[in-house]
C-alpha cells in the first residue's frame, strides 16, 4: 500500500463499484423485455378489458377515415351518428385500458415483492439493496403501467385509423394509394430506430436513478450515523452525482425522441406534397376526379398522421420495456434455496438433533475466503451447545447454515439425521427460533405485531405471555399505548435492551424445537440480562439450543462448549473439562476476558430484586388493561386519515419558479413549440389551397399543384427543425427540474432534525418513494405538458385567426361550440383532484412495508413471514388500486365527452357551411378553410384536455414536493450560524435538563438531570435498560433539544454553537454499528471530512484492532461490507465503526456499548486501544459491563430521569443500600 497518499473521502459508492455499476448499466441499456411479455401477468379479467378496449379503440380509430367518405356531404344525421359512436368508444377504450393497466401494474408490484422475498439470502448480500427494490417498485412500475395502459388503447386506435384510412383510399383510388405507400418504409424504419435508441437510453437513465434511490434509502435509514459524522454534504454530493448521470441520459433520450418525431413529420409532410402533385398529375393523365383525389389523399393523410402519432406511443413502450427488464428478471429468477418450494420431507415432528458433517463454506459474495474448513459438530437432542471463538471465526455462520440461509460448499447439515436440503424449507424453519445479535423490529408495526411475527394466528394472551417471559411486560406496560405502541423505523423508539427483549419474546412465542441464540443478551443491562437469562433457560428446557456469545460467563452452563478456531472445532467439552487444559484455546479466552472478575463483578441485580411468579402477574394484568383500553385513548391521525383532508393547495407557479434558471431555455422551447403549433393551421390553409387548385383549368392545375407540393416539403423541414429543437430545450428544462427537485428534496430531508425521522410517515421507504416518483410525474408538466400547451395554444389561436379571416360568420357560429369542450375538460380535472393524493400516500405506506422486509430479510426468512409481508403489502395497495380504477373511469368519461363535442363540432361545421354557401354568404373554398381551421383548433383543445390526468396528478405531486421543501428543521446542520471555538477543552455540563421524546410526550426520560464533568474525564453512565443512557448521548450530539435546562460545552450552550462543528468534535461508536454498503476503506474514511490518507486509514484500523482481519480478506480494505455491513461479523463491524470514530481524532469520545459485540481477545485489545485514545479526551461511556466502566473518573447512575448517585467506583461501592452497590452485588453462580 502507498502510505501517506491522499484519497478522496467517499460517501456511499466506491470507485470500483461505480465502474462495475457503469458496466452493468451499459449492458442493461442494450437489454429490454419483448413487448408482448409486458402482459405476462394479466388475468382473464384483464384480457377481457383489453379485448373490449381494443375493439372500442378500433371503432374509435375508423371513425375519422369514415368521415372522409362523407367529406363532401353536409348531412348532420351522419355526423351525429359518428359523434355518438365515437363518444361511446372513447369512454370504453380509455376506461378499459387504464383499469387493466392499473391492475396489471399492481400485480407486477406484488409479484416482484413476493419474488424478492423468495430469494436466498446471498442475493441480498451482493446483488440487490432495499433502496433499489423501492426505486423499482415505485418508479419503474409507473413506466410499465404507461406501457400497458391507456397508451396501448391510443396506439390501437391510431393503428386502426391508419389501416382504415388506407382501406378507404384503396377502395376509392388504388393506383394513387399505391404510389402514396412509398412513404411507409422510411416511416417504419425511422420509427424502429427511434424505439430502439430511446429504449436503450431510458434503461440507462433508470439504472442511474436506481443508484440514487439506493443512496437515499441508505442515508435516510442510517440518518443518526450520517448526522453524527456530519456526513450530510457527502451524502448529497453522492446523490447528486447519480442524478447528474440520470440527467445526461434523460436529455439524450428526449433529444432522440424529438429528432425521431421531427423526422417522421418531415417524411409525412413531404409525402403529402408528393401526393398532391401526383394527384394533380392523375387528374390530368388518368381522368381522376377532384373528389376522388381529395378522398384518397385525405384518407392517406389521416392514416399517415395516425401512424406518426402511434410512433409517439413507442417511446412509452420502450421505456416500459426497459423498466420491466430488471423487474421481470427478478420475478423469473429461481433461487437456489427456495422459501416457497413445497418440495422436501415433512416429518411428524423433530427431536432436534443437529449435526454439521465436514462442512466447507464460504460466503457467495466472497467465494475464495473459506470461513469453515472441514467443520464437524454433533449436538444431541435437548442439549445446549455453546459456540465461542474470536470475532469473525464463524460462529454466526454456523447459525446461518442451520437456518439454511446458505448451503455449504461441501459437507452436510443434518437435523435428526436428515440433510437440511431434503427437508421442506418453510416447515423446518418453523421448528427453529432465532434471536440474533442485532434485533430487527419492523417500524410500520406495533410491539404487539412484532411479537406476533413469532407465530401465525397468535392471540393477545399468547403475545402477553411471551412478553412476560422475556421480561418485556414491565416496560411495555409503562408506554401510553402499551402493546399497540409503534416501534419506529428499525425500532428506534426503543432502547437496545428493549428491542432485544421484544425479539426474545417473538422467538419464545414461536415455541421452537431448536433455539438459536446469537448474542441474545448482549444488549441487556445486568438486571434484565439475569432475568431474561433465567427466562431463556426455562424456554430452553427440552429443546436443542445453540448459544453464541462473547461473554463466556453466559455459556458456562452449556452441556458442552465448542471453540471455533480457523474454521474448525479447535476444542470441545464442558466448562469444567475445558478448564483442565491450561494451554487450550478456551483457557486463553478465559484469561483474556479475566473471567474470574467478570463472574464476581459483572453488573447484576441483587437477589432481593429477583422477580418471582407473583410479581410477574402485575404487568400481565396491566398489559391486558392497557390493551383493552386503547379505544379510549386519543391517537395521532394516521397518514391515510390525514390525507383525506386533501393535499394542500400549491400553485404551479411555485414549481415554475424552481425552473427559473432555465427560463431562457424554456422561452426558446416555447417559441419553437409555438412555431410547431402554427404549422398545423398553415397545413390546413395549404390543404384548402390545394383543393381550390383541383378545380382550376389544366394549365393552372399543373403549375399550382407543384407550388403547393413544394409548400408541403417546406412545412416538413420546418416541422423537423421546430419539433427537434423544442424537444431538446424542453428536455433540458424538464430534466434539470427533476434533478433540482430531487436534489433539493433530498438535501432538505437529510438536514432535517432527527425527531422528524421518528415520525412513521418519514421513514426511509416512504421518503424514498416520494423522491423516486414525485419529480418524475412533475417533469411531465414542465416537459411534455408545457410543450403541448404552448403548441396547442398556438394551434388554436392561429386556427381561429385563419377561420375568422376566411368567414367570420361561419367561424363565430362554430366558436360557440368550443366552450363545451373546455367545460368537459375542467370537469374531468376537478373530479380527479382528491383521490390521487390519497393513493399516493397509501403507496408510500405500502412501500415502507416492502422496504422494511427487504432490509430485514434474515428475520423475515427465519420466521417464514414472506407471505405475511406480501399480504400486508397487498392490503395497503387495495385502496390506491381502487383509486386508480376510478381514475380510469373518470378519464374515459371526460375524453368521451370531449370527443362527443369535437365530432359534434365537425357535424355542425358541415351543416352551417352548407347553409352559408346556399345563401351566398361564403364560397366553397372559404368553407374548407374554416373547416380545416376548426379541425386543427379542436385538435389543440383536445390535446390540452388530454393533459387533465397528468395535470391533476402533477398538482398532487407538486404539493408533496413543497410539503418537503417547506419543512423547517428545528436543528439544521446545514446552517453555518453559531460559534466555533478555536480550542476545545471538553468541559460538559447538563443543568436541570428535562426531556421527553416528541412522539412520546407522556413519558418523561429526564426530569431534572444535572451532571458536570471536566475536560479529559471519563464518565460512565449506568442504569437499567431504557433509563436514558443513550438519550444522554443523543442530547449531547444535539439530535434533540431538551424541553428545559441547559447543556453546555466549555461553558457555552451547545444550541449556540455551530451544529456541524459541534458534531465534528465528537466521535461516536454506537451499540449497533451502522456501516454503509461500501468498501471498508470508505467506511473508515467516512469519519473524517476532506481528504484522508491511506496511512490515516491504516493507523485508525490498527488502533481499533481491525487491521489484521481486514488484511486477511481477499480484497483487504477494498472489501465491500454489504448492505448494513452484512458481509462482516458483529465484532468486525464494531471495530470498523471504532476506526471510523478515532480517525477524526475527536475531542469528545462517545462510546455507547462500543465493545459489546467483541470477543474476549478483541475486547481487551480494543479496550486498551480506546484507553489510549481516551487520554486527554472527554469520554462518555455507556456500558452494562463493570470491566468497561470501573476505571472511569466518574460513574453516574441514572434512575427515574435523574442522577441518583455519582462518584468513582471505589466510593459508590461502599454506599450501603446504594443503587450502584446493589448493581454490583455478586451474581448468583450459574
Describe this structure in words.
The protein is α/β, with parallel strands linked by helices. Helices cover 61% and strands 10% of the residues. It is built from 44 helices and 22 strands. The strands form 5 sheets. The chain has a 6-stranded mixed β-sheet, with helices on both faces. Strands 17-19-20-14-21-22 form a 6-stranded mixed β-sheet. Strands 3-2-5-6 form a 4-stranded antiparallel β-sheet, covered by helices on one side. Strand 5 and strand 6 form a beta hairpin. The N terminus and C terminus are likely disordered.
CATH topology (fold) name of the largest domain: ABC transporter transmembrane region fold
The stretches of 5 or more residues where confidence is low (pLDDT under 50) are 1-21, 72-83, 595-622, 624-647, 830-835, 1226-1230
Helix content: 55-70%
- Rounded to an integer in angstroms, the radius of gyration calculated over CA atoms is 36 Å
Strand order, main sheet: write it out.
Answer: 7-8-9-4-10-11
Shape: elongated
GO molecular function, one term: ATP binding
Keywords: ATP-binding, Glycoprotein, Membrane, Nucleotide-binding, Repeat, Transmembrane, Transmembrane helix, Transport
Pfam families: ABC_membrane, ABC_tran
Membrane topology: Multi-pass membrane protein
Write the layout of secondary structure elements.
Layout: E1 6-7, H1 15-29, H2 44-69, H3 76-118, H4 121-126, H5 130-148, H6 150-180, H7 184-221, H8 223-228, H9 232-285, H10 290-331, E2 354-362, E3 370-379, E4 384-389, H11 395-402, E5 410-415, E6 418-419, H12 425-429, E7 432-435, H13 447-452, H14 460-469, H15 473-477, H16 496-510, E8 514-518, H17 526-539, E9 544-548, E10 560-565, E11 568-573, H18 575-580, H19 585-593, H20 595-601, H21 613-628, H22 639-643, H23 652-658, H24 663-693, H25 698-750, H26 754-758, H27 764-806, H28 808-815, H29 818-831, H30 833-855, H31 857-862, H32 866-918, H33 924-946, H34 948-965, E12 988-995, E13 1006-1013, E14 1018-1022, H35 1029-1036, E15 1044-1049, E16 1052-1053, H36 1059-1064, E17 1066-1069, H37 1080-1085, E18 1092-1093, H38 1094-1103, H39 1107-1112, H40 1130-1142, E19 1148-1152, H41 1160-1174, E20 1178-1182, H42 1186-1189, E21 1194-1199, E22 1202-1207, H43 1209-1212, H44 1219-1223
Parallel strand pairs: 4-9, 4-10, 7-8, 8-9, 14-20, 14-21, 17-19, 19-20
Antiparallel strand pairs: 1-18, 2-3, 2-5, 5-6, 10-11, 12-13, 12-15, 15-16, 21-22
Helix pairs in contact: 1-7, 2-3, 2-6, 2-10, 3-5, 3-6, 3-10, 3-32, 5-7, 5-10, 5-27, 5-30, 6-10, 7-9, 7-10, 7-27, 9-10, 9-25, 14-16, 14-21, 16-17, 19-41, 24-25, 24-27, 24-33, 25-27, 27-28, 27-30, 27-33, 27-34, 29-32, 29-33, 29-34, 30-32, 30-34, 32-33, 38-40
GO biological process, one term: oligopeptide export from mitochondrion
Family: Belongs to the ABC transporter superfamily. ABCB family. Multidrug resistance exporter (TC 3.A.1.201) subfamily.
GO molecular function: ABC-type oligopeptide transporter activity; ATP binding; ATP hydrolysis activity; auxin efflux transmembrane transporter activity; auxin influx transmembrane transporter activity
